[in-house]
Amino acid sequence: MRTFILYLVLALGAYLCQTVLYPAFLMPELRIDLFLVLLLHFSFFYERSKGLILALFLGLLMDVGLPLRGCFFPLIYLGIALLASMLRQNLNLHSRRYQAFFLGLCALIEGVGVRTILGLQDAGFAEAGYFLRLLAWRTIITALVGPLLLAGLERVDRYLSAFIVHQESQEV
Amino acid sequence: MTSQARKFIIPILIFLLALSLISANLHSRENMSFFESLVVGITSPVQKAVWAIIGGVGSVWRGYFYLVGLEKENKALKRELQELKLQMNRYREADLANERLRALLNFKKSIATPLLPAQLVAFDPSGWFQTILIDKGRNDGVVQDMAVVSSEGLVGRVIGVGNHHSKVLLILDGNSAVDAYIQRSRARGVLVGLGLELCLLKYVQRNEDVQVGDQIISSGMGGVFPKGLLVGTVQEVVRGSSGLFQRVEVEPAVNFSRLEEVLVVIQPPPEKPAMAGSQKRLE
Prior knowledge:
The structure holds two protein chains of two kinds.
Chain A: H1 2-25, H2 34-45, H3 48-63, H4 72-87, H5 96-120, H6 128-171
Helix pairs in contact in A: 1-3, 2-3, 2-4, 2-6, 3-4, 4-5, 5-6
Chain B: H1 3-27, H2 34-110, E1 115-123, E2 131-134, E3 147-149, E4 154-161, E5 166-170, E6 177-182, E7 188-193, E8 199-205, E9 215-218, E10 230-238, E11 245-252, E12 261-265, H3 276-282
């Protein structure tokens, strides 16, 4: 429960970062989706049900402020969480290379999903060139920076588990 | 000589000696007497040395206390300087806010419809869209499809309303479309966002007169955006060798990266055409 609350707090922090700090300091091409990193970390290292719940929460949070209908982000995050939990039995997800690959793949899936849903809404980006450039940059940046963020989250996890063990031992 | 007479004689002699010394000094005031010179000659080097030592110790002592005081004073001054810097930043910020609000106020006076000032709260979290959240919602009288403007020009329209917040789709977004025309030549088109800080005026016919630097104005068609609002400036015109339309790139009038305060145009949203069934039911 504590872990889950911690991740909810981290998710809120990531939300604030993406809605306030990103537009002020980062170019659109460099804006890595922090929710994706959080979600993948949770899906890699925790039970599937917990990952799915977090995916739903993050998706709903992301949908706040977007001009989309039909809960697009909850759906796409649930799909990614499901895929990650399935793959963790077959892939060595502790390897940074696999993590980079998977993060890049997820960023690509997310971008293509956004483009598809915009196409279905008969809106979409007027310039395919700009969209493709944005997608390519975000995929690369996510693959490069994502594993570092995952490593940071793993460290947070270790601290948290050590803290819980310490507290429990003290209680005993 | 009696003892009583001796008592008187000695003080009188001393008195006379003193008187003679004083009278002798009165005559030679400019030069020291031998005695004085002797005494001064002997004592002055010692005095000098003692004064030098006292002076040195005194100056070190005073300097030490002065330095201690100076350090404290320095710290206090630095703190004061920091406080003043902070205060100055606050004043500068207030000054800038004042300028912006004054511009908004002037703009508000220039538009006949009532305007509701709102503060920008957040941008789109995903980075794929161009939307913002503002701090005014249903409770403040905001409803869907109301136009949002700033003193610089058109910002977007309300696409979602909460009790205290509203979601605004910027004109930069690919989902946005604004009916607009070129102010100089009155050539019409539809302004759509490109997803970045640039828009495209679509469906401008090839034979229309469009030049770089022309200003784009909202036409008011559709009833969402008020007529005559500045939307942007033509940045590039491309006429291909074929095709019905020319490509007109538009730089928005509003600097979206510096957007802080906006105005919601409080006017009833355009009435949507009633469905045939519902029309019948109403009848």
